[in-house]
Amino acid sequence: MPPTASIIIPNYENGRESSVDGGTDLLGDLFESLHHTLRSDPTDVEILVADDGSGDDSLETARAWSRRTWRDGRPFCRLFEHEHTGRLSVVLNRLMERATGRLICRMDGDVLLRSPGWLARVVERFDSEERLGVLGGRQLDCTGALHSVGDLLLHPHGYQHVGAGAASEVSCPPYEHDHVMGCFHLLRRTAFDEVGGYDESMPRGQTVDLGVRLLQSGWKAMTDPDIVYEHRLALRRGRSSSSDGQDSLAVSRRIFFEKWGFDRLVPDQDAMRDRLGEVLVPTTEGRFPDPAGIGAPEDEIENRVALVRGAVRPNQPVRVAMIGAGDGSVPARLVGHGIKVTGLDDRPEAIEAARAVVDGDALPVPHLVDDLARLPIEEGLIDILLVDRVLERHRNPIALLKEARRIMAPGGLLLLLARWRTPEEQLVAPRSASTFTPTSLRMFLAGSGSFRSVPFATKPFPHPQRDVLLYALHPLAEIDLGREAFDGIGDPTLVD
């Protein structure tokens, strides 16, 4: 009889010789953790390993474990040795052809299982959720810190790891989301067969493409946080595989975009909705009510005035604009310091309040704009752009960010302020789109490939304001969709 579950492990150089310290046996540790967590598990299971032409000691480790047996005499695993392809999707499709279980547990060779009895729990979860297509667990990094408890993709703020940076033991019930990372990917075989195999044209990000097809076919993605594993990617040195090359991320993103019509890291909501429909990507009705910049306290106004003044060079003409100008208090104050500002806002109530604030002072009222992602400003005109608590509430944030880059002059400066929440708060309402976590904002900016962050030379705010994250950003000359884009975005400033 076929087993209930098949564990499939693609391996390419996960041995001691490929570890950062030269002594960590990544693949061997995975096998040890499987042996430990499954020896008392009643689930019928087969373990299949496919080696993609490894040149390190991991191949011999896999051979040694394939000669070992369970207590009942069954082989611990079956090993298939292939010449190097450099394409994970090819290796995975070969494993899927050989797997016979109704549940498929895919895991990378640098994973470590921490939960005894996890497989029985997986079977129970799939048996209790008829439309569950893919399941994930609580992912820790090699230090034991929480990396994610599931991912969002069909979200205005783009691709993000839910709970990243929270305490590793934080409480979270099983919940439905958009995507499960491929390093530990628990899949219903019938769902996989329905939507087809891994796309072998993609060097990276194959699981995102598969996940979108599953969602499109009505299958659910969930995470059970009580299934805990460690992904020890940081303990492995870089490899010579073509899928790990510098441009592989950009190539995969381009292929995904050509296939689906939206970017998999920072998806345009309109394009994604056109392709996937209102059920998966519902239209955002109305606007998140935000009084930001309307009747603001004096400290808040002084903070923004100081931020802009600190960016202006003495005796040098500068063109300044503010998106989210509110009642116009900040632009009006800056005019008093000799800095003319074009203010824009999309809230009629802000413009009404502005008329009262600037009345009689011969100061311009901010412009009312229907969509802040379509501004009546010439390309490359603005030297300093202040975006104040707008990006997080906009219905299509990546469109707004692209518009900000369009109107900025080469060498200009974007001062970005965004409301935020903690990773623990994100776990309570993962799909909320009114705030960023520090990690999700960094991933969003990096994914855009449009900016690089610069540190503040001096304290940016004269007064504490811990409810906002702050970035200073220079536009890049060319869009960067490679790994360098992520390296160019540091952590945001939390203003004390």
Write up what this structure looks like.
The protein is an alpha/beta fold and 496 residues long. The chain is built from 15 helices and 20 strands. It has helices at residues 26-38, 58-66, 88-98, 118-128, 189-195, 206-216, 248-260, 269-276, 298-311, 329-336, 348-358, 397-407, 423-428, 438-448, 483-487; strands at residues 5-11, 45-52, 78-82, 103-107, 111-113, 132-140, 146-148, 151-152, 160-161, 175-177, 184-188, 220-231, 320-323, 341-345, 367-368, 382-388, 408-419, 451-453, 468-475, 493-494. Strand 8 (151-152) and strand 9 (160-161) form a beta hairpin. Helix 1 packs parallel to helix 2 and helix 9 (298-311) packs across helix 10 (329-336). The longest helix is centred in the middle third of the chain and has 14 residues, at 298-311. The model has no long low-confidence stretch (mean pLDDT 94).
Please give a quick description of this structure.
The protein has 496 residues and is α/β, with parallel strands linked by helices.
Q: What count of structural domains? A: 2
Mind telling me the C-alpha Rg?
A: 25 Å
Question: How many E-type strands?
Answer: 20
Structural class computed from helices and strand pairing: alpha/beta
List the helices and strands and how they pair.
Layout: E1 5-11, H1 26-38, E2 45-52, H2 58-66, E3 78-82, H3 88-98, E4 103-107, E5 111-113, H4 118-128, E6 132-140, E7 146-148, E8 151-152, E9 160-161, E10 175-177, E11 184-188, H5 189-195, H6 206-216, E12 220-231, H7 248-260, H8 269-276, H9 298-311, E13 320-323, H10 329-336, E14 341-345, H11 348-358, E15 367-368, E16 382-388, H12 397-407, E17 408-419, H13 423-428, H14 438-448, E18 451-453, E19 468-475, H15 483-487, E20 493-494
Parallel strand pairs: 1-2, 1-4, 2-3, 6-12, 13-14, 13-16, 14-15, 16-17
Antiparallel strand pairs: 4-11, 5-12, 6-7, 6-11, 8-9, 10-12, 17-19, 18-19, 19-20
Helix pairs in contact: 1-2, 9-10
